[in-house]
Amino acid sequence: MVMLPVLLLAAALGPGAPPLEFAGVVFNETSLNAVVERFGQATRWQTGDAGESETKVCYVVQTRMGPRDVYFISGELWVGEIVYGVRITPAGDRRCAAARRNRAALGAAINGFANETAVKRRLKSLGFAKEKPGQWWRCFQEPLHGETSDRCFSVSATWRQGALIRFELWETETN
After folding, report:
1. Where are the alpha helices (DSSP H) in the chain?
2. Which residues are CB-contacts of 122 (< 8 A; sequence separation ≥ 6)?
3. How far apart are CA 42 and CA 58, in angstroms?
């Protein structure tokens, strides 16, 4: 069985499901500062404006598909630069630093998305709805601080000739 690290922790993906995690980075909990502590020094930069604002740190890591850039992303709405998304692309962004620590964990997490058929099968088994080709989503409600919160996951992926070209995973919560 191909392991999908990000999605395995949230196997039930329903109320009370564990937090989403990628290579030891817990979505909506881990700060970009903690990401840097985990993988080593990296440039931090910001793109977009207002609601479209994102702050990123990026690492390049060797995978069985060749070198890949992995971006940890925080948005303007996440106070304290808390990670809410990850993006994986072929290596080439000069801003990405070589991961100095926990390289194996980072590479293994990326390798978990290499098999297109296994990823699609796993998303379907977890109840993700196909939005359009290469995009899936799943939302559910759960109690949060005495109120009901919507917890949503969005996945976007592109494979070409069996190789992972781009993968994005986001988790959001709304009240």
Report:
1. 5-8, 32-39, 103-111, 116-125
2. 2, 4, 7
3. 7
Helices (H), 52-142: 103-111, 116-125
Q: Is 166 helix (H, G, I), strand (E, B) or coil?
A: strand
Between CA 26 and CA 125 the distance in angstroms is 22
Nearest CA to 44 among 33, 29, 30? 33
Q: What is the pLDDT of residues 6-38, one digit of tens each?
A: 443 344 455 566 677 889 998 888 999 999 999
Element (H, E) at 60: strand 54-63
- What pairs with residue 25 in β-bridges? 22
Which residue is associated with the tokens 């994986």? Answer: 88
DSSP E strand stretches across 64-122 = 66-75, 85-90, 97-98
Task: Return d(Cα 11, Cα 111) in angstroms, integer.
Answer: 19
Tell me the pLDDT tens digit for each residue of 65-113. 899 999 999 876 556 688 888 999 999 999 999 999 998 989 888 888 8
* Entry pTM: 0.84
